[in-house]
Amino acid sequence: MNSNINTTTTLSAKKAGVGGGGRVLRKTGRTLFWGLLTIYGVITLYPFFWLVISAFKTNEDFYVRPFGLPQVWHFDNFTRAWESSRLGTAFGNSVLVAIGSLVLTLFIAALTSFILARFQFRWKGGVLTFFVIGMLIPIHSTLVPLFILMKQMSLLNTYWALILPYTAFALPTAIFVLTAYLTSVPRDLEEAAFIDGTGLWGLFFRIMLPMSVPALATVTILSFLHSWNDFSFALVFINKTALKTLPLAIANFADGYQTDYGLSLAGMTLSVIPTIVLYLLFQEQMMKGMTAGAVKG
Length: 297
Description:
Belongs to the binding-protein-dependent transport system permease family. The protein has 13 helices and no strands. It is mostly helical.
């Protein structure tokens, strides 16, 4: 009897030891995971932190203390940058170009993806391949032919010289993301809509478009970032000062002799605010759109 009790006690102690060791390993693993994730977050956010604090420095302070806090915080760098390089006009031009290309991209990509995802036709695979190949074309390799084309069409120094190329290069990725998302929508909803008397346009606007908000949010952020930050197309296609976008206006702070780092970084800080606000507004929907189709059922 005593031997059975001792054996039971020994087994219970061993199980408790194994369970305790497993809990310690799991806790250590979680601590290590969150520690590495925190380090990665700090490394990722540091460039933005450096940009903001450097925007308050003078050139002398920037050279002496490139990674330190400003010795004197020059808040007037922002007002000087805004006024000296006409950032207000450039800001408005960038908003107009980015919004214009974004609206065209969303409208065309949504209609195209709806057809590719919900209908079967003969050349469907070839059309999808065509758009996938479009994602592989280097954007800057098209500058010369696009410049010649824009000149022949008399579109140079107009907003359309930027809106149309931005839309064209954003469409392949937008169609790829939206098609993948719409394919995962159950066909029962489509059949029920047809039974209720809904036509194709009603199906698109009332059902498919509202359900594809996560994918649309993903496309919105990706397309907006590309058109907002682009420098090369604006530099080649726009010469009028009144039509210059934000990247071109910020580039005015640097010339062949010197660069005013305080004003340049202040302008960059102002230009990055809309992208941060846009991401914060759509981050949840963007995550849903990027993971759409990963799990089916």
